[in-house]
């Protein structure tokens, strides 16, 4: 009888260990990073890529805001194993829209794209992520061709048009800054240029906010007032 009781105790002990280990394995805590992209969809904030000071990443994870949680231990959910970006991404921009079936689609635009060994992995300016299927695609963009750019922020209006101003890109003589406004119409996937009349100077690392009156407010960042002078502005 003692032997049987001991067996029960041992079995319970092993069950506890297995459950504990499973909980530890399933938990996910993202490393500190910068240069990542994020977007709010419903009650969840989705995060993409980033740089931790040593390595770039293709991670995709989210934080569910629908319930209260301890800010010291947020309930992160990692999607990377099944839905990681096809390359290491940083300094891109993301916006979310609903497709014709009302399914949320996230557009990832521009940024630094690297392969697993650190070489350039740039094949498209625009990538889409379907939250329902968890799949990435490269959409066929029509219209104006434009350079890949990084250190940008995009906004999307109620008609499904995405606006991206400026950014940093690889030019013929090295890194250059842009002053153009590109517009991606997500309804027909057409890319075009918008007006730059009275626009800010060449700029990157800014914030962009779409106001209720349809105006886009750009704040901060680095800008050039001529080819040699660069300064921070607010």
UniProtKB/TrEMBL annotation:
Question: Gene3D superfamilies in the record, alphabetically?
Answer: Kelch-type beta propeller (2.120.10.80)
Show where the Attractin/MKLN-like beta-propeller domain sits. Answer: 28-224
- Which InterPro entries does the protein's record reference? Beta-prop_ATRN-MKLN-like (IPR056737), Kelch-typ_b-propeller (IPR015915)
* Pfam families given in the database record: Beta-prop_ATRN-LZTR1
Q: Which SUPFAM superfamilies match?
A: Kelch motif
Print the keywords alphabetically: Kelch repeat, Membrane, Repeat, Transmembrane, Transmembrane helix
What stretches pass through the bilayer?
Answer: 12-31
The record, for PANTHER family, names: KELCH DOMAIN-CONTAINING PROTEIN (PTHR46228), KELCH REPEAT PROTEIN (AFU_ORTHOLOGUE AFUA_4G14350) (PTHR46228:SF2)
**Under what name is this protein listed?**
13963_t:CDS:1
Name the species this protein comes from.
Answer: Funneliformis geosporum
């Amino acid at each position: 009888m003692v032997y049987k009781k001991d067996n029960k105790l041992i079995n319970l002990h092993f069950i506890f260990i297995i459950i504990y280990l499973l909980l530890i394995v399933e938990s996910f805590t993202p490393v500190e990073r910068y240069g990542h992209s994020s977007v709010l969809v419903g009650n969840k904030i989705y995060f993409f890529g980033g740089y931790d000071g040593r390595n770039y990443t293709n991670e995709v994870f989210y934080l569910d805001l629908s319930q209260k949680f301890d800010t010291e231990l947020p309930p992160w959910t990692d999607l990377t194993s099944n839905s990681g970006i096809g390359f290491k991404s940083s300094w891109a921009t993301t916006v979310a829209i609903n497709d014709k079936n009302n399914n949320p689609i996230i557009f990832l635009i521009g940024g630094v794209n690297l392969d697993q060994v650190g070489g350039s992995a740039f094949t498209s300016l625009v990538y889409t992520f379907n939250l329902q299927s968890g799949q990435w695609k490269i959409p066929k963009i029509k219209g104006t061709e434009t350079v890949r750019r990084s250190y940008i922020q995009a906004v999307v209006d109620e008609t499904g048009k995405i606006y991206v101003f400026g950014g940093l890109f690889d030019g013929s003589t090295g890194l250059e800054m842009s002053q153009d406004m590109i517009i991606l119409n997500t309804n027909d996937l057409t890319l075009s240029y918008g007006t730059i009349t009275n626009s800010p100077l060449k700029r990157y690392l800014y914030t962009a906010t779409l106001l209720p009156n349809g105006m886009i407010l750009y704040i901060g960042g680095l800008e050039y007032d001529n080819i040699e002078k660069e300064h921070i502005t607010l």
